[in-house]
Structure formats: C-alpha cells, structure tokens
Amino acid sequence: MAKWATGFRRLGAVLAVAVGLLACIAPSARAADAVASYLVKATINADGTLAVKATLTFNGAAPDQVQQVFDTVVTTADRMEYHYRLTDVAASTGGKDLGATVSEASGSTTVTIPTGGASTAIELDYTVHGAAMATANDTTTVAWPYLQGLDLAVDLFEAVVEVPGLPTLIDCEAGDPASPGACTYYSGATHENFNPTFHHEAATPGQVVIGVVRFPTNVVAVNQDVREIWSLDRAFSAAPLPLGIALGVLVLGGLALWAAHRRIGRDATVGGDPVLVAEFAPIGPGQSEFRVLDGVRPGEVGTLVDERVDPIDVTATLLDLAVRGHLRITELPLESAHATSDWTFARRQGADTLLDYEHTLLDAVAPVQGDPVQVSNLAGSVGAVIGDVQSQLYDEVVKRGWFARRPDSTRNQWALIGWVGLGVAVVVTIVLAAFTHFGLAGLALIAIALGVVLVGQEMPARTATGTGVLTGLDVLRGSLLTQPVDTLPTGRGYQQMSALLPYAVVLGGKERWLQAMADSDDDDLPDSTDLDWYHGPDSWHLADLPASLANFVTTVQGTLFSR
What we know:
The protein is an alpha+beta fold. The protein has helices at residues 2-25, 232-235, 240-265, 298-306, 311-323, 356-365, 378-383, 386-399, 407-435, 439-456, 464-482, 493-507, 510-519, 545-561; strands at residues 34-44, 50-58, 65-71, 73-75, 80-83, 85-93, 96-97, 101-105, 108-114, 122-129, 132-135, 139-147, 153-162, 169-175, 181-182, 185-187, 197-203, 208-216, 225-228, 278-284, 287-292, 327-331, 343-347, 534-535. The protein folds into two domains: 34-227, Immunoglobulin-like; 278-404 and 461-561, no CATH class. Strands 7-6-10-2-1-13-17-16 form an eight-stranded mixed beta sheet, with no helix packed on it. Strands 11-12-18-14-15 form a five-stranded antiparallel beta sheet, with no helix packed on it. Strands 3-9-8 form a three-stranded antiparallel beta sheet, with no helix packed on it. Mean pLDDT is 90; it is low at 1-29.
C-alpha cells in the first residue's frame, strides 16, 4: 500500500508540471492593437448627403474601446472654412448596439465605441452633410476622408461608393492629413462599373484615406456649408471687382464735389471795373492823398479776402480804431531789460460812428468804466466777446452785399454734412468690411466725406459785388506795395500813413510805410507822444515805430490765437 501511495504522489506531481507547461505553451487571448480590415460601403445620395457604413475587423478580440475623431471644419489656403455635420451615428456588433457616444468639439466630432472586447466585426454607421461641394463648370464634388482620426493602425482599407450616376472624375489620396499622397489604387467610374473603389494598405494611427467623386450638378445637388474667414486682405480685397467699384465710387464722388464747388462755391463773375475801397487820389503835381471810399473798414477787408474773421482782422481793427481817434495804444516801459513788451488801451472820443463789431471790441479793450486793459490780459477781455465780434463782422459783410450768406454759416452747414457723411461712411465701411469684400468702397466713401469737410471750407461764395470789391482790393494791395512814400501831402504824412497802416496790415506793405514814418524822425528828441494814437515810453522815438508795431501786431495775434 505504501508503494501505491508513493506512486500516486509522483503521478500528481508530473501532471501538475504538464499542466504548467501546457499553460506556458498555449497562446494567450489578447486584444488586437490594429484593425485587420476597415471596409466601407458608402452611398452618395442625389441630395448630396453621404451615408457611410464602416466594418472593422480585428485579428483577435477588439480592444475595449475604439475611438475615431472626424474633422468637421476644414480650412483652406484661401481662408475658407468648410463645415461638415454627422448624423445618425451608431455602432454595433453582431446586430447588438454598442452604445457609441458622440461628443462635439470646435471643429471635430469624436465617436467613442465601447466594444467590450468583441470578437466579431464592429460596424459604424453615420451620415455626412456638407461633403457635396460646388466646383467649376456646373459640377458637384463629393470629397470625404472615409478613414480619419482612428486611434489604431489599419492593415487594409477599402471603400466602395455607390453613386446615383456616372462620375466625371474620381481621385484618392492617403497618408498624413497635412500632406496626403496617393492611395495604393482606386478604380471604377466607368460605363461598366459606375461605383468607385478606393483601396489602401498599411495606414498608421491618425492617417487618412480621402475619396473624391465628381458629378454634373444635375446628378448630385450641392449641400456645402462654406464660410469665409474674416481677414483684412479679404475685407479690403484689391481684386478687380472690389477695386473697380472703389475707384468708381471715388471718381464719382470727386466729380460730384468738383461740380458742387463750381456751382455753389464759385464766386459770381463781374464784368465791370474793380470796385475800389480806398485809393491814392492825385491832389496836385507829384502828390496823392490816401482816401477810404464808402467807409470800408480793414476788418471787413480781411474778411472779404479770406472769407473768415481771424486774429489779423481783429488786430487791424484795433489799429484802425486807434487811428480814427476811438482808442489810444500806449507802449509800457519795460520793467527790466529782459521783460516782455506790453501795451495798454485808453478809450477816446472819436468823431465817426462805430459799427456794431467795432463797438463790441472797443468796449472789451477799453471799457467806459473800468481799468484799462493790457495786451497781456487781452485773451480774457477779448476772448469773452470774440464770438460776438466775429458774428457781427460776418453780418456786416453780408449787409454790404459781398456775400449772400454768412461765410461761417455756409462753412458750418457743409461741415455738418461732411461730418454726418463721415459717420455714415465709417458705419458703412465697418459693415462692408465685416460681411463683404468691398471694404475699399467704404474707404472711398470716407475719403469723399472728408473731401466734403475740406471743400466745405471753400464753399462761401462772393456775390458779384463782393467779387468786384475783391478785384479792387488787388488794386489797393498793389498800390500799398508800390506807391512812392514821398508823394503824400506835405505836412500830413503822419496822418496819411497812419490812416493807411491798418489796411497795409491786412493786405501787405506795412513794413515800407512804417519805415517811412521812422525815416521822418530827423532829430534826437524823444517822440513818445508825437502820434496821437500811439504813445511810447519817455525815451521812445519814431525810429522805434517799426519794431514797436511789428511787436504789437505779433503779440496781439499770438494772444488771440492762444485764447
């Protein structure tokens, strides 16, 4: 019995060793790391939709999960986006639904299939919308990566595509998504076999196989969803059509501005003689007297010349008020060698009548009651009334019949039109740039609106009377620049040169007349009060008048500009 027991024990040990050896020798069941075959049966419908059924088989059990990522947004080199949509997504094996999950992301759709380690083929069904694209010559091209975004390698891929009519072109590309090459082979699209076949071998994870089929548009309808990517070069395209439209808008707008200026802003023509506002009238052999005609003031002259009231007109008016006896300008002594020059105004009782703007200006610089105003404080005193002075001066030139409307009102009206037009043009440009290729046309509109603003400043038009007076001012300007200074009446030189000085400030030539007054100072005695309208410090000479008045004019204009 002991021998039998020992024998059984030895037999059990041998059997255990044998079982262990068999376990080591027998192949273990493991999940496949590649797809043995990826077979597609697809149908291109007449409405452009693409129905796909993919069958995946494995050498062994399927991995626990298969994931495939489908690109649903493709951007082309010309900055166009093609959008695709997947519907009716389902996965099954042996007729059993595997409960595939579909997740949407920006630009992709991910299908995740829990296989449960299935040993039978897995079928993936889906429908593609947007793959039927419009192409040249009234054709529709259906292009789709039947293999894409798979997380497993594929040993063999083949797609058979059922088509509704004879294709005019087929093509196949495979490989890396960024730069696919040729498929292993493709065939079909013949009268004997309409249906194309796309075949490729040894695709690594993530590689693509793209099938392309083209039809006449009446065979397969276009269902593409294509969108442009906004960019500056696309919004402001210089292609022939957008550029031509922009140039056309610019030319038409420019012609309209030119026509408007000629019709509205051009001065009326005058056929008669120039209308003189002042002249050097002969009164004897070799003598001429400066005379102002019709009481035209220097400020009005300056406004007629440039169609606006500016600091030089106000400065000339101050000098004219002084010369006519309504004002005295007194140059103050310098407080130190490096001090700034200053002047003060004193009111006087002039003999002639003041115009409204003159009265307003005189009250500002030399109040009837109150302290005299210094030029250094002119910005405050005149700044408070300069708007009234300008308005009254514009009214005066209209009253004289030189303008049909106030020049400032005309400019303001056109400026308003221009700025409103600019705002509209900017909005139109934004809309055109955001939604079309015609942004350049919007820029042309902006240029035209700015042109209205600029040309509007030249729109005030002189009447025939104003044009005649302007021509007469050209004559007066020539006389002020060329009239011999020694032809003024004897004994009245200071009075005559003082009277013409405000006009010379506006029209030109003041330097030569001031120098003539300075040259008449033939003694060393101070002349601080020789001129009733301009007084200087105690040591002041008429020879100092050119420098003093040049300094006065510059300072007053600078003060008015800086207000």
